[in-house]
Amino acid sequence: MAQKTSAKEKEREFIIECIQLYRDLPALWNVKSKLYHDRDKKSMAYDLLLSKYQEMFPKANKDLKKKFNALRTNYRKELKKHMDSMKSGASADSIYEPTLWYYSDMNFLHDQEMACDSESSMDITQNSDTQNSVEDDVEQNTVCL
């Protein structure tokens, strides 16, 4: 049993090392980075991450992307639970504390995972229609001043 726990701990430590490398490769996760939009840089970054990952899992291949997407998905779920519990007006004692073992290691993604304020497409369409109507009226010289 001790060996099993030890192997699990070693694997977790290794995954955390991979997460730290992932954090140092913004081409893979930072949508605001120019590197993120460069396919060659992104491919080189995945190759670097893959070579690290293959130290413990030699048969790993480009499916490593799926592994990190799964890690991000789990992080995002925990983050959402935490943020929702803070919004609910709950007391400090009832705020959800994430239990994911690598949650704190993935906190560099916090800004990436939080939704930006958005504008409804219905508002944009209505504003566009109103703008087009005003432009049409101006062209026809029927706007009353």
Automatic annotation (TrEMBL):
Renumbered residue ranges of the record's region Disordered: 119-145
Superkingdom of this protein's organism: Eukaryota
Organism of derivation: Euphydryas editha (Edith's checkerspot)
Name recorded for this polypeptide: MADF domain-containing protein
Segments forming domain MADF: 17-114
Start-end of Polar residues biased regions: 119-133
